[in-house]
Design goal:
Structural class: alpha/beta
Strand order of the largest sheet: 5-4-1-6-7-8
Largest sheet: 6 strands, parallel
Oligomer: single chain
Shape: globular
Distance between the termini: 6 Å
Length: about 220
Amino acid sequence: MVEIILFDLDGTLTDPKEGITRCVQYGMEALGYYEPDREKLTPFIGPPLFDMYMEIYGFTEEQADFAVEKYRERFREKGMYENEIYPGIAEMLGALKASGKRLGVATLKPEVFAVPILKHFEIDQYFEFIVGVELSGKQTQKEDVIREALCRFGAKDRKDSVVMVGDRKNDVIGARKAGVDCVGVLYGYGSEEELSEAGAKTFAATVEELQGLLLAL
């Protein structure tokens, strides 16, 4: 029986597209790169920013560091709240908590940003622990965040009682490396093909479907 549910933040609890893509643009423009089509920047939603600047645009480590620094400059001021909670999320969290499930957040977003975002949408009270990365932790991967969440919940030796919920392949791969199962959500930014290739076997197309699935675990 699943007792602990860990949620990704971006693309799972909230839709951060406007804020993230505008901040990615800001970071690029500080280096003289221009990408007017923000749709091309949605792959940045979920994975580590540092990695994506190098993978998609071929930045050097030094350039990627600088772009992330500029990204966070705008994100801290504006981008954090250019964000929307998915309809039905608050109701789902309330139902899960009322059923006795223990809830947490495991995100690659810096913890100093994740906490105020969740407070802004008035859903922070549903989570026992909100686990993100340190601002200096560019090398942190999803499995590291999930393992830290397991430690905080005291569940390192009870991984079969934990499930991760996320919308991108790094959520699935990170969960697998940390030894827990993952439910892939299809209303975020990863396709069923992406999630399936990463190893996900269970999917939810809507928040309502996700609620029913998690309550049954």
